[in-house]
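DM from R.C. (forwarded with permission)

"hey, sorry to bug you on a friday — could you get me a structure for this? deadline for the figure draft is monday and I only need the backbone to look sensible"
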Amino acid sequence: MSWRPTVWWPFLAFGAAVWTSGSSLGVGRPWALVTVWVVVAAVVFARHRGLPASRSLERYLSSRSAVVVVSALTSLVVWFVWGSMRAPPVIHDEAAYLFQAKLFARGHWAAPTPALPEFFEQFHVMIVPTWASKYPPGHSLLLSPGVALGLPGLIPLTLSGVTGGLVFVLARRLSGVWVALLTWVFWATAWGNLHYRPTYFSEVTTSALLLGAWLALLRWRDSGRPHWLAATAIFIAWTAITRPLTALAVGLPVVPLVLLIARKQRDWRQVVVAGVLGVLIVGVIPMWSAETTGDWTETPQVLYAKTYLPFDLPGFGNVTTVGQRRGPPELPQFDAFYRSIRSAHTVKGLPTTLVDRLGGIAFDMWGGWRAALLPFFFVGLFFISAEAWFAVASSALVVAAYLTYHHHPFHTRYYLELAPVLAFVCMAGFMATVRKLTDETADSSGSRSGVERSATVALFACILAWWPAWFSIRRARILEQGHMTPVSRFLASMNTISDDKAMVFLRYGEHPDIYRSLMSNDPNLESARLWIVYDRGTANATIMRLAPDRKPYAYDVEAGVLTPGAP
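My reply, with the result:
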């Protein structure tokens, strides 16, 4: 075998990175090097002989049933990490989305402000003039069927499965079945996916919507059928009522492309129809605002910021304005932490901010031993099609759009939608390198044996990948269960309460956890068995007089101990 540095250097970098990060696998560097040797052995084997069985597998991967299997396996992985379709919300944002989903499940935009609202205030949920989540309604609307069935995790699991299927279909359409298979395996087991998909975060919804929009756009371009353009408009518009900034970044390159294609097809009617559909869906925003804030021009997100966190809007530099309400007990620490991030978020510091965030995004995809595959991403940039470059450019616009907003570099869930693009480019680069190595003797048109040889390497790589992938999945499950421990402990304590009606006072210490949420009430307080309220000291007697039929309990958040009686 001839020595060709221009082809072999990604594999050499792969070996060096595995040796450097092998200990992150938990098995040590010598065992990690097995990864390199098996891949190299597969290449050597494939240069001389391909596996005939790869033809049958290739035909199956081209079928619709393969998409169903990939979707089901994606949902299964997320379910395994999460542990249940009844998993509780852990982060404040998740609790806010589920609160709104409960309202939608009952056919309401908002609930009336409860008496003594200071006892029920909750992060990311406004309580005056109505009781509703601050977040745009798209995600909560989709969550509401699962909430109505008593299975809140059903929709995130379903959406993750749909996203996995779309990742496979799009990659297969652009680069063939083997790149598609490798892309799905690499994407499904990335740390960002394993960490953020078993949640109630809205990025789970927008990931499926974004890929759906790109697939529909491709099919409309190729077929000219108007229902595909309508689907594109619906998906992007639903993204706009879920995560508006993401929709703006993704929609910007779509609009001129649609106009260009429509000009070539000389059919503007379907563009008008799609535009009307999009406007109707986006029209939910002023309706939502009017039903919750009482003013169709002021969204709950803006009103919530004014009320509690005036700095928590896009912009740069320090904001000295203080909130109008006292808020939850953890609010002072939450406010101080995020004000420090906002004050450091300046126009001058954007280059550093960008580098830090790209580092966080890269860690989610190539953290640990997966850093070994990073060189293939840069190789892939030279081999992907114009359609894939469109996705890369759209991803770059999403990153640029969020430069207007302050956040910690490793709060990377804002970029969950970009993971399929990164995985695809990386695996396209991997397969391009493999083809250079295995198809040297093939003729210029590409022989069947040459295809078999590269397919053999891809098959070896997929089989091998599940060894470290399983380690990552299992580790993610352990971390997720640990992440949920404070909330699970609290819920276990609530299950010990046998009273028909009770009121639990949350007592916080000097150093509260500003991320995890224990505050979560049913919007219909009258019928709720439990009221979860804050310990407001001497003011507690006021709410006890309001509900004398409810037996009081106190829950020490730091100690995790439930005791009868009011604090």
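R.C.: lifesaver. The chain has two domains: 5-84+155-284+346-482, 496-564.
me: no worries. Residues 83 and 320 are 43 Å apart (CA to CA).
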